């Protein structure tokens, strides 16, 4: 029997587990952050943030902009002066966009990205995108979405961006053969690995959203079967459902097991026989298992606590508990999308404490009381927790790093191992040096 099939869940895991719902103060980055990985993926797109100086500073420091490079994102700063007359603000925006597109003929897709300052909220960016889209089509497609920090968590920026793309995807012919659409930004190297595995399994018609080039938008229709590569794409999935596409339920491709089950869902849907699946995925699974084995000794048995931040928490908790034997103290997630996470919840050990939403003070109290070996949290919480003696991992790093697929399973484990190794080294370095016993003095006395 396939090693993948053999590890089908025996119980219903956490599907019916109680969830602590928190609705208090939150501590998260805003959706603008998604631009950092999205602009690398869609190589001829430009992200124009319509925002404040704060937004510009966030992006500049988060993305480490090099001033001598031609950037593919920027901020049109709206200030108090613009608030006086919205007509002027629209004119100013048109002027900025015109200047940008005249100077940069390489831009084929322009996203106007909204933010949360009140001056910006008053601007109707969808109308601005329509107006500018008519003017610059067919050279440039102009779209808009919001990366605002109000009521969002940072990965919702990607969801909003991809959801804005869905209405402009071409319609697939009704008699087109079934096509697999992988949805969610993957590093190019990961995308290439998955494309090769699908090809070797005999699934020839595979597309990715977002594409690498603006002119390469995949067609979508009732013959589209889509697999989510990221767990935070609720709006995008809803928009795809609205275009008639069919969602393929699967766990997410983290670790050896997650990747196998994710690929298996596609193999089943496209009628790939089990022996072909085994032949194609076996070597990758073996590499992943070998890479993970060396981290099991350092991570196995360690207790981990997840603050709600990236929406990757539940799939990562499943990976860490099932493949590295880590113990889950609390798994918090900003949103618990039961439909998309059903396969993950099935695999999560029964009895795991789950929470949805955030009330940061209460959660900090629970974290400190639990005293985990490792806390996964946002940047804002990391330093205070470290000061309290806890070891932390920045959740955002897990989104920036290629972690999906067999060949990245070891790198994913390394991300959790590294802070623990650093803490152990620091503890060694700060230990007082043993006092050398004076000649003739007994060792025991010197230590006392
Ligand atoms: S969108 Fe809002 S939260 Fe994000 S940087 Fe701009 S002002 Fe700050």
Number of strands: 14
Shape: globular
Q: Give the distance, in angstroms, between the N- and C-terminal Cα atoms.
A: 61 Å
What structural class do the secondary elements suggest? Answer: alpha/beta
The averaged pLDDT comes out at 91
Q: How large is the radius of gyration?
A: 24 Å
| Hetero groups | iron/sulfur cluster
Number of helices: 19
CATH level 3 topology of the largest domain: Rossmann fold
Topology overview:
Blueprint: H1 3-6, E1 19-23, H2 35-41, E2 45-51, H3 53-63, E3 73-77, H4 80-83, H5 86-103, E4 109-114, H6 118-121, H7 125-136, E5 141-146, H8 156-165, E6 179-183, H9 188-201, E7 206-209, E8 224-228, H10 234-242, E9 246-247, H11 255-269, H12 274-299, E10 303-306, H13 313-324, E11 327-333, H14 338-347, E12 354-358, H15 360-370, E13 374-377, H16 379-387, E14 392-394, H17 395-400, H18 409-430, H19 443-447
The protein binds iron/sulfur cluster.
Structural features, described:
This protein has 448 residues and is of the alpha/beta class. The chain has three domains: 9-26 and 291-427, Rossmann fold; 31-152, Rossmann fold, CATH 3.40.50; 179-279, 3-Layer(aba) Sandwich (Rossmann fold). It has 19 helices and 14 strands. The strands form three sheets. The chain has a six-stranded parallel beta sheet, sandwiched between helices. Strands 3-2-4-5 form a four-stranded parallel beta sheet, with helices on both faces. The protein has a four-stranded parallel beta sheet with strand order 7-6-8-9, with helices on both faces. Helix 13 (313-324) runs parallel beside helix 14. 45% of the residues are buried. The site of iron/sulfur cluster has 13 residues, from helix 3.
């Amino acid at each position: 029997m396939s090693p993948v099939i053999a590890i089908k869940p025996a119980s219903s895991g956490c599907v019916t587990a109680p969830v602590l719902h928190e609705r208090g103060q939150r501590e998260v980055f805003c959706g603008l952050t998604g631009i950092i990985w999205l602009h690398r993926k869609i190589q001829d797109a430009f992200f124009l943030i319509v925002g404040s100086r704060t937004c510009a500073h966030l992006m500049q420091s988060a993305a480490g902009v090099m001033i001598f490079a031609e950037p593919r994102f920027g901020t049109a700063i709206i200030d108090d002066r613009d608030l006086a007359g919205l007509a002027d603000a629209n004119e100013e925006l048109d002027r900025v966009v015109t200047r940008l597109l005249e100077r940069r003929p390489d831009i084929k897709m322009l996203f106007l990205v909204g933010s949360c300052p009140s001056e910006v909220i008053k601007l109707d960016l969808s109308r601005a995108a329509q107006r500018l889209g008519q003017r610059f089509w067919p050279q440039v497609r102009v779209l808009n979405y919001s990366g605002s920090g109000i009521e969002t968590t940072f990965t919702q920026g990607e969801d909003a961006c991809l959801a804005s793309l869905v209405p402009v995807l071409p319609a697939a012919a009704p008699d087109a053969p079934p096509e697999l659409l992988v949805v969610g930004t993957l590093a190019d190297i990961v995308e290439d690995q998955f494309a090769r595995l699908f090809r070797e399994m005999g699934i020839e018609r595979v597309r990715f959203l977002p594409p690498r080039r603006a002119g390469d938008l995949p067609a979508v229709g009732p013959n589209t079967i889509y697999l989510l590569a990221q767990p935070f794409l609720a709006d995008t999935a809803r928009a795809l459902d609205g275009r008639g596409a069919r969602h393929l339920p699967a766990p997410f491709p983290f670790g050896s097991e997650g990747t196998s089950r994710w690929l298996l869902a596609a193999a089943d849907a496209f009628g790939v026989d089990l022996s072909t699946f085994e032949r194609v995925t076996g070597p990758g699974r073996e590499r992943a298992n070998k890479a993970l084995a060396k981290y099991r000794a350092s991570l196995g048995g360690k207790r981990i606590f997840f603050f709600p931040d990236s929406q990757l928490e539940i799939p990562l908790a499943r990976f860490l508990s099932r493949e590295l034997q880590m113990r889950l103290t609390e798994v918090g997630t900003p949103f618990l999308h039961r439909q998309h996470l059903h396969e993950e919840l099935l695999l999560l050990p029964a009895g795991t404490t789950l929470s949805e939403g955030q009330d940061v003070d209460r959660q900090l109290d629970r974290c400190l009381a639990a005293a985990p070996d490792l806390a996964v949290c946002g940047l804002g919480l990391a330093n205070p927790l470290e000061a309290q003696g806890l070891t932390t991992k920045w959740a955002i790093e897990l989104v920036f790093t290629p972690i999906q697929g067999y060949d990245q399973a070891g790198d994913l484990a390394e991300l959790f191992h590294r802070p623990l190794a650093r803490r152990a080294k620091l503890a060694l370095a700060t230990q007082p040096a043993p006092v050398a016993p004076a000649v003739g003095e007994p060792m025991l006395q010197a230590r006392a």
